[in-house]
Design a protein that fits this description.
It is a single chain. With 187 residues, the protein is mainly α. The protein has one domain. The chain is 72% helix and 0% strand. It contains 6 helices and no strands. Helix 3 runs antiparallel to helix 4. The longest helix is centred in the N-terminal third of the chain and has 47 residues. It starts with a helix and ends with a helix.
Length: 187
């Protein structure tokens, strides 16, 4: 059982016992020893309820952040499969789509993944963020070079071949994306 489940069971168990003792005390009021028991159990249940609420809110926030990251990574997969990244040689200069990292940035700064169990995932997200920034910068430089007035069709084809080499940054980015998608726990 998870910690949240244990705390929830304890909280509701204490409330149930306090309720039963309260009913007994109501029907047999002559025995005043039930009053401190009912009050104490209710107080302890209320305090443990605070922990249940916090654990639940933390779990919900983590789930929301993970869903946003998965959605963003799936969008990046779609962008990397865009026809402008196809291996076919372009016939003209192109503006390439850029990868996004806004949900990854949110996940890293929100604190929702700050738990010890997410340490490896946080490391992967940091590396992915750096990879995306470098990838987008390389696309910027490629576009600047290909949109200059002096580029020949042969040079344009060479840029495209470099993008699609087996050990290119494009291939490494795609591989990191697939590895990150596989590493994210399903919420």
């Amino acid at each position: 059982m998870t910690r949240r489940t244990v705390v929830t069971v304890v909280t509701y168990g204490l409330l149930g016992v306090a309720f039963v003792l309260g009913i007994i005390w109501f029907f047999w009021p002559g025995n005043s020893r039930w009053e401190p028991a009912v009050n104490t159990l209710t107080l302890v249940a209320g305090l443990s309820g605070i922990f249940v609420e916090r654990l639940t809110a933390e779990a919900e926030r983590r789930t929301e952040v993970l869903r946003a990251v998965v959605d963003e990574l799936q969008e990046n997969t779609r962008l990397l499969n865009d026809e402008r990244f196809s291996p076919d040689a372009p016939t003209s200069r192109q503006v390439y789509p850029r990868l996004v990292v806004s949900a990854v940035d949110l996940a890293l700064v929100s604190g929702a993944l700050g738990l010890h169990r997410d340490a490896d995932l946080v490391g992967l997200l940091h590396r992915w963020r750096d990879t995306v920034h470098l990838f987008n910068r390389r696309l910027d430089l490629t576009e600047i070079s290909t949109f200059s007035n002096t580029i020949s069709p042969a040079e344009l084809a060479a840029f495209h071949r470099a993008l699609h080499r087996e050990n290119s940054y494009f291939a490494a980015t795609r591989e990191k994306l697939q590895n990150l998608l596989a590493a994210i726990p399903q919420p």
